[in-house]
Amino acid sequence: MSAIKDWDAYNAAAREKGKELSGLHPELVKGFSALSRGASTTQHLDAKTRELIALAVAITTRCDGCIDAHVRKAKTAGASKAEIAEALGVAIALNAGAAFTYALHVLDAAGE
Q: Start and end of every Carboxymuconolactone decarboxylase-like domain (predicted)?
């Protein structure tokens, strides 16, 4: 596993590449930004809960940029490292559950 050692440097580099993509395809970036704003404008979930969900999804989709952005936002929203760890535990368990369920599909496909 190659770990990101400097998340601030990673974030700065990602922002620069984001600016480049925005210049090359501004409508795409506008659409992505609108989607992100819409997802963060909720009536029933508070910011911390949204960010804990986002972190759980970030590890299941293996998205370094998502991890970077949502750890920052979760901490700003008041999430503790222990709360983040619990959210990650839920994601890990769900991934294991999905693998278990798909193992049953394999047995079904293998037949008798």
A: 26-108
